[in-house]
Amino acid sequence: MSQAFDDAIQFALAHEVPWPRDPAVDPARWGVHHEDPPPYNRLRGPVHARGGVSGVVWRAGQELASWGEPERADLTFSVAKSYLALLAGVAHGRGLLPDPDEPVGQRLSGIGFDSAHNRTITWTHLLAQTSEWQGECFGLPDHVEHHRQVAHDPKPPAGRKGEPRGLQPPGSYWEYNDVRINQLSLALLHLFRQPLAQVFQEAILEPLGGGTDWRWAPYDDAWVEIDGRRMPSVPGGSHWGGGVSIGARDQARIGQLVLDQGRFGGRELVPASWIARMSQPGTIAPFYGWLLWLNRDGRLFAAASPQSVFMVGAGGHYVWVDPAHQAVVVVRWIDPARVHGFVNRVAKALDSA
């Protein structure tokens, strides 16, 4: 069966992202922080050398193909945003976050949701990237990400990256903003009152049979005290360093959990209703759900089924969950400019498999 994917695999291997494998060798060509205005265009957390292009294809929970080093724990950048959405679902299942439309500050005071502008921000706003949260999170102001353009955002640029713009009411404007994602992570830390890496390991990775070699690193200065304990507040990506380092097979396990509506081995790890909501289009940004990229109109990837959802990270990281084919596809370190060719080839193989 793996031969059916040989064309896609060879295509991926031939189109590695043009970043150095070791960020220390040529730091000016590694990462996305260089696009930020100074003094924010620097790393604030640890990074490490990476492997080459790797990935897996699963169907109905069975591995059909693999390439590269699928067990290697590599940085995965904004794929970690989807992990925060899953953690919010765990909190919902435990009764810690009963209503996602509840203002965050109603349950958590003193962590950045008390101002007149921020007090109406809900969990839904944060998960949908429509919060318009204003402030600083561990020294990074929200406006560093104003006017940010990412590959799958159809909105044309309206200003220079990092140039402050007038804020809209919470829930009325979509913007891909890593500072606000880090603020969501901080809020989840205060909900769980234990490190998010520990919650993710115990609630998701261990039950799935994974989590033996992974880590979720904070920025060097992103630590808070809760209940007398010093805890890291982890970022939802590796924009400024830190973030999740994980293997492709563990990423496939997580993708399979989304495909299976939050259930594994007869257990509900994340409520099915929460998984379903993650995959629903927002009214302002119908191409986006709750920290998932959607493909409802085929605009994201024309060859993928409209039911497909994607976890996407800078540096060429994609987790493709395709209910139409009962498939999960992970590819790491592919050149984003060539990923459509990979998706086309995998889609063709899935159709014929």
Low-confidence spans: pLDDT under 50, at least 5 residues?
none
CATH architecture descriptor name of the domain at 2-79 and 211-225 and 238-352: 3-Layer(aba) Sandwich
Distance between the termini: 7 Å
Task: Output the CATH topology of the domain at 2-79 and 211-225 and 238-352.
Answer: Beta-lactamase
Number of strands: 15
Q: Could you spell the SSE succession in H and E letters? A: HEEEHHHEEHHEEEEHEEHEEEEH
Q: How is the largest sheet built, in terms of strand order?
A: 2-1-15-14-13-12
What is the level 1 CATH name of the domain at 2-79 and 211-225 and 238-352? Alpha Beta
Can you give the mean pLDDT? 97
Shape: globular
Q: Helical region count? A: 9
What structural category do the secondary elements indicate? alpha+beta
By CATH's scheme, which homologous superfamily of the domain at 2-79 and 211-225 and 238-352 applies? DD-peptidase/beta-lactamase superfamily
Compute the gyration radius: what is it?
A: 19 Å
Helix content: 25-40%
> Strand count, sense and closure of the main sheet?
6 strands, antiparallel
- Beta-strand percentage range: 15-25%
Region (Disordered): 147-169
Pfam families: Beta-lactamase
Organism: Ramlibacter aurantiacus
Protein name: Serine hydrolase
Describe the structure.
With 353 residues, the protein is an alpha+beta fold. Strands 2-1-15-14-13-12 form a 6-stranded antiparallel β-sheet, with helices on both faces. The protein has a 3-stranded antiparallel β-sheet with strand order 3-9-6. Strand 7 and strand 8 form a beta hairpin. Helix 1 runs antiparallel to helix 9 and helix 2 packs parallel to helix 5. It is globular and about 60 Å long. The mean pLDDT is 97. GO terms for molecular function: hydrolase activity. This is Serine hydrolase. It holds the Pfam family Beta-lactamase. InterPro entries: Beta-lactam-related, Beta-lactam/transpept-like, Diverse_Enzym_Activities.
